[in-house]
Each structure stands twice: as C-alpha cells, then as structure tokens.
Amino acid sequence: MTKDPSSHLIEDLLYAYEHRLLTDPVGQAVDRSIAAGVQGKFDMAELTRRVGKHQTAQRFAGPFRRHELTRGAILLGHDLQGRAVRIPVQPLCAHSLTLGGSGSGKTTKSRWQILQVASRVPGLWLFDFRKREYACLVPYLAALGVDLIVVPARSLKLNPLQLPAGVDPHSWASRVADMLVQVFRLPARATKLLQLTVIDLFERRGVLRGTDDYPTLFDLREAIARNVAANPQARAAIVDVLDPVLMSLRSVLAYRRGWSSQDLAQHRIVFELDGVGEVEKDLILSSLVLPEFTSRVARGISNRSMNLWICCDEAARLVSTSTTAGGMADLIGLIRGSGLGLDLSIQSADIAPAVLSNTASKFIGRCGSSRDYDSIASAMGLSPDQRKQLATVLVPGVFVGQVGEGDWRHPFIYRVPDVDLSEPPHVAMPPGGSVPVGLLPRPQAGAGADVTCDHASGRHADVLGSLPIEPAPEFADWHFDPARRRATATSPADSQTDTHAAQPNNPPHVNGPTETLSDAERRFLRAVIDHPGTVSSGLARLASIGTHQAIAVRKRLIERGLVREHRVNTSNRGRASIVLEPLPAGLAAMQT
Amino acid sequence: MRGRYLHNELMVHPLAGAFDCEDWQTDLEVPIRMGETIGFVDLVAEREGYCIAVEAECSAARVERDLDKAQALRADELWIVTPTRRVADAVQRRLGRLLIPVDPDSICVLTQGQALHRVTSCLPLIAGR
After folding, report:
1. Of A95, A153, A238, A239, whose CB has the highest number of CB atoms within 10 Å?
2. Which domain holds residue B50?
3. Cut 0.80: pTM above it
4. What torsion do the CA atoms of A196, A199, A204, A209 make, to the nearest 10 degrees?
C-alpha cells in the first residue's frame, strides 16, 4: 500500500518547519506556493531535496541536531561536520557555565572566546586562581590593539568596606557582612555582629552622611576586638580569621579608598591570585565582584549591551552549593541584563541551583564522573540518547553547548579550535617604542595549554595608577600580635594582656589594686560595678567570659577584697542567685 | 538609707523601681512615730488609697518591730522581703511564735524574686481594691 503523496508533502513541510529549512528567499517562495496550493514540480522537488539532505546530515550528526547558529561575531568553533558555530556577543551577557574535567579544554575554550570578545567590550576581568592561564593572551590581544593589564594579587588596592556606587550604606553593611561570613566561613551569629559593627563604623566616619572616609577591615577588626559586650564566640571567630588575612594582605587592604569596581570595570584586567591563600583569594574575588554586582543592581541598570565580561577559570568558589548562601549566587540572577556577562568554568557539578537556573548558556566538556554528566544533562534538558552519547563523543576540545538567547536553543556539539600560543604574534610597535598595553608580553615557552608565562612588572601601575585611592597609613605597618589576639578572643583569666592595647589612650595596665588584674578580671569587675544586682551568670556574659572562667574570676576578686558575694532569690522560684557587691577597694581600683 | 548594699541596692531599690513602673507612689525610709521612738519603713507604696509597707530583712530579728511600724503607718499590707528562702522561713517561724494577734492576709513574707513577681504580675490583677 503506497502512501498518499499529500501526506508526504505535509510530513516534509512539517520537518522543514521544525528544522527551519525554508527560511531563505527560495525556501520562503516554496512555502508560499505550497500554502496557496499552487505548488509545482520545482517546489515539491526543492522541498524534498532540502528535507532529504537535512535528514542525511542529521543521521551523521547523531542525536544532536544540526545547529543553526550561523550568524554572529563570536566563533565558538566548528561542529563535527566542519560547519562554523557562531553566536552574537549579546547572549554572553546572559551568563554561561562550562563544566568539564581537567584537560577537557575549558581553558582553551575560554581563551578562544576571550580573544574574540575582548575587543568588543570595554571591561574584561579574567580571574586566574591557580595557574597563570590568561596572561599569555597579552601579546595576542596587543596585536589586536587591546590593552590587557596583568595585576598580581598583592598589587591590588582594595577596601571591601568601600561603598559601591549607588548603594545604600545600610544595604552594603548587610551585604558585606554576609560576604565576610561566607568568605571566612564564620558562624551565622557573626553576621549580626559584623553588620552592626560596619554600620557603627559607617556612622562614626560619616559614611552615612555621605562622606567617603570609609573604614577598613583593620578598623573592623579593632572595633570587634574592643567590643567586650559582643557574643564572645562570634567575636573570637572574627578576630581569629581576620588576623592572618590582614597580615597577609596588609599592602592590599590598607586603603580607605581603594580601586573601585566601577573604575576597574572600564579596563581589561587579568587578576592573578595564585600567590595568595584560598581565603585571601575568596576575599579578593568577592571584594571585586560583589560591589560591581550590587552597584549594578542598585543603579537599576537593565537591558543594555554588555560592557563588562567576567571570566573565572576555576569558579567553584563562586558557584558551589556549599559556599553560596546569601552570596553571589543570589545576585547572579539579578544582574542578568545589567551589561555584565559571566563566564564560569568548573570541574564538577557541585553547583548551586540558583547558578544553574541563571546561566542561560551551558557547555559541557569531557567529565570524569557520570554524576557530572547527569547533573548538567538534566539542566540542559538533554534527551536520553543525547545523554548516552556524552560519555563517548566528548573528547578534549569537544563540547556540547546550549545557547540561552536567540531563537534556536537546541543542544549542539562542536569542537573548539586549538589555540596555538606557542609563537608570540608580531606586535606593531608604536612610535614610543613600547607595546601599547598594560604589560609587556611574557617570554613564551611550550605550546597550547602548556604555555608558561612570566610577569613583566610594574606596567599595570601606569594604567591603574591614575585611579583615585586614599591610603590608610596607620595600618601600613599593622602587624599580628599573638598576645593581643589571645586577649581579645576571651583569653584565660590569667592573661596579662589588655583588649584595649590598640588604643593609645587606653594603657594596658593601670596602677593600684588592678595592677595584677587580668583583662578578664577587669572586665568582670567593671560589669559588677556598672550592673548592680545582676546575677553572676549575667556578669559572665557582660564580661564576655565563659561560665567556668567566671567562677574562678569571682573567687579571686572575693579573695582580694574587691567584691562581696550575696545570695538572693532574684526570681520567683529556684535556687538563690549569687549577686556581687563592689567593695570600696574594687571601686577605687576601677577609678584609677 | 541605713541598710547596706544587699538591703538597699539589691532589695529595696529594685522593688521601688518595680512599684514605680506599675504607677504606685513610692517613698523610701518613711519616718513613723511609735510612742517615744521614731521608726523608718524601708518602702511605702500607695495607690488609690491602698498602702503597702515593705520591709527588707536579712534576718528574722526585727520582725516584731516591722509589725509595729506597719500598724503605726496603718498600712493595708506589710511585705517582709528577704533575700533568700531560708531567711523567709525563719521570719515565718518567728511570726508563728508571736503572741500578738496577726491578720495573716495582711502580712506577706516574700523572697526578693517573689516580691518582684507579685508587684509586676499580681498587683495589676487586683488593682483598685
């Protein structure tokens, strides 16, 4: 039994519609003829030819459709049949996520895109966390007339407490408190202490009234260390984590006004963070990216062309499920359309749901784990056949992609060109004789991804040195004092150090009966005097010391004749509480 | 006030503050003539004609004199407030041994916590009597 020719026609027509085979002028003419019922032999033959050709090609393409990404300034690569895969620049603004194991070609893909995107955006931030992957692009971009500045971590000038443009100080205090808790992995209770302290510092320095005399992290550390009424665990945790970071990044953070993210967003910069610890990397990354995110959200920028592209080669620290609570994962969804594009590359599928939802373009390379394939395949909506083929078809340099914007959103397979960085390009020298970029090209060695780069020093200062900054010289020689840290972090009662040692007007020891008092004893005695009638356990809290330590302190103060103990039933039921009476010797001691 | 820290700072002043918060009129160290001598009531709280005499006692030694002062003041209630339950028990025993007739409804022996609780929680419920 033969099929009705009209049913063949309809099937072919539907197939042609589905795969957009009639979008060119000839195809549209064929479509109109068929729709009007006046199709001739040519129309039928043309339709059959197109459908047959496409079906044949599709059989070779496997479960992935032949892509229709043929227009745009960015060449992603070529599909397995050698057809170019192109996209416009603007879809990158909807953020992209690349998942691939080590050696899958993520860095090569990233470099290939950077070479094309860099000249089309005024701002480009490239974050090198472990290897120096991006600085090699300097001479190549220079050949294109693009300045790429390489800034080592310790050459940065930042103040995480600096208010981003257009952001309310109270909002920023809350945001930066969340950021610090996340970066330093502090207990949740520290959030409130940090937030209140930042607001207090803002108020004292006039930031709430509109001045730009911003407090620094050093100010924050000292203020929290002095706050004896604060929760002792939170206080100790903050001081503990801040001390080593402030020591390590002293030259970076000793600025009341550092480089603002808004200024940096006008430049193309490689941030090389391989020389600092993991916590420091997180702090620097957050101090750069979070203000820019927050500022764009606060300024209400929307639906504008991309003017800043941020590339993170190892972005797990940004998108991991374990590190994103209240952090940048929440903001990624908000900044879409604000002119900021994110390109995140990660090795495993430990990704926060908010990030998966808000990265419109996704790419998957060769992975070492079926779980990674499953996770990203689910997020991309791959069919079971497509999912099955991932494990076999993906080799280094081959990716399955899905572009988030545009009218063709099917997953496609493509190969990234092998970027050969073995030979530095010929760079046209300007009349002055120097390369017109932030840094001179580094000596090259090796080939492809194995190329190594070396720093040329100091050139970034020429470009970034003109940005407005205000140093905080009082912290330029700030050093970590273990004794002071022990005291501020609720030291043992016999510690002879003083919390207020950092204050020049508050000497660590006073003459008189308190000469031999420890810091904890002094705080406890002060609480007794300032809060008459408070039961002993309440005094321990006021003095920021533990219950057991408070018992020992109380006994010592009684033995020295500084306080007297009374037992009073201060509540309706239960045992009598211990209430302390300050004796004249104790009062005199604290007045000196 | 002639008492010491425990008597004044830990017992009388917090109670006076609690009465003040409940809109009672309070007076400290109110002098009372008792025959040839003058006594002082630690705290007198008054509202709408209802008068409470409060005596803070750290022992049971002066209970009889407290009763005399309350009668001289014509207080509606006498509160003998003690720092601990042990002292309160001692005061209760002492009152039980007294030969003079005492209206048990008009005399309350309370610990400091009980007295504060009574001011803040109980008196508002019986206000206006």
Report:
1. A238
2. 5-126
3. no
4. -160
How far is residue A301's CA from residue A299's CA, in Å, rounded to a whole number?
A: 6
Cβ pair A498, A521 in contact under 8 A? no
Question: Burial level of A48, CB count in 10 A (0-12/13-18/19+)?
Answer: middle
More confident residue, A282 or B101: A282
Closest CA of chain B from A528, distance in Å: 12
What gap in Å lies between CA B69 and CA B74, rounded to an integer? 8
The closest alpha carbon to A294, from A257, A264, A331, A342, belongs to A331
> A75 by DSSP, 3-state: which?
strand
Which value does ipTM take for this structure?
0.81
B111 touching A (Cβ < 8 Å): yes
Strand partners, A342: A310
Q: How far apart are CA A93 and CA A406, in angstroms?
A: 12
Edge-to-edge, what's the strand order for the sheet holding A340-346? A84-87, A74-78, A412-415, A398-402, A361-364, A96-99, A340-346, A308-312, A123-128, A268-272, A149-152
Distance CA B127, CA B113 (A): 20
Evaluate the CA torsion angle B80, B85, B86, B89 in order and state its sign. Answer: positive
Q: What is the CATH number of the domain that holds B38?
A: 3.40.1350.10
Residue of B nearest to A535 (CA): B10
As to burial, measured by CB atoms within 10 angstroms (0-12 exposed, 13-18 middle, 19+ buried), residue A349 is: buried
Using the structure block, give the residue that is written with the tokens 């040329």: A456
Give the total number of structural domains in chain B. Answer: 1
- A–B: how many Cβ contacts below 8 A? 47
pLDDT at A202: 92
Q: What pairs with residue A85 in β-bridges?
A: A77
HSE-CB for A537 with a 13 A CA cutoff: 3
Q: How many residues does chain B have?
A: 129
Instruction: Kindly list the structural domains of chain A, giving each domain's residue range(s) and its CATH number in brackets, ordered by start.
Output: 5-61 (no CATH), 84-158+258-464 (3.40.50.300), 169-248 (no CATH), 491-591 (1.10.10.10)
Task: Give A-chain residues touching B80 at CB under 8 angstroms.
Answer: none
pLDDT for the residue numbered A484? 53
Beta bridge mates, B43 = B28, B54
- The residues with which B47 forms a beta bridge, in sequence order, are B50
Please answer whether residues B105 and B126 qualify as being in contact, where contact means their C-beta atoms are separated by less than 8 angstroms.
no
- Mean pLDDT per 10-residue run, chain A (592 residues)? 70 88 90 89 91 84 80 87 86 85 88 90 88 84 86 90 90 90 85 91 88 90 86 85 87 90 90 85 87 84 80 78 58 73 85 81 87 84 84 87 81 86 57 36 36 43 78 79 50 36 37 62 87 85 85 87 86 82 83 65
Distance of CA B72 to the CA centre of its chain: 14
The answer to whether B9 and A532 have CB atoms below 8 angstroms apart is: yes
> What are the strands, taking DSSP E only, across A235-368?
255-257, 268-272, 308-312, 340-346, 361-364
CB A114 within 8 A of CB A137: yes
Q: Does A573 touch chain B (CB under 8 A)?
A: yes
Give the model confidence (pLDDT) of B69-79 as tens digits: 988 888 889 99
What gap in Å lies between CA B103 and CA B105, rounded to an integer? 5
Closest-CA distance, B119 to chain A, in angstroms, reads 11
What burial class does residue A547 get, using C-beta atoms within 10 Å of its C-beta: 0-12 exposed, 13-18 middle, 19+ buried? exposed
Which tokens in the block code for residue A78? 């070529």
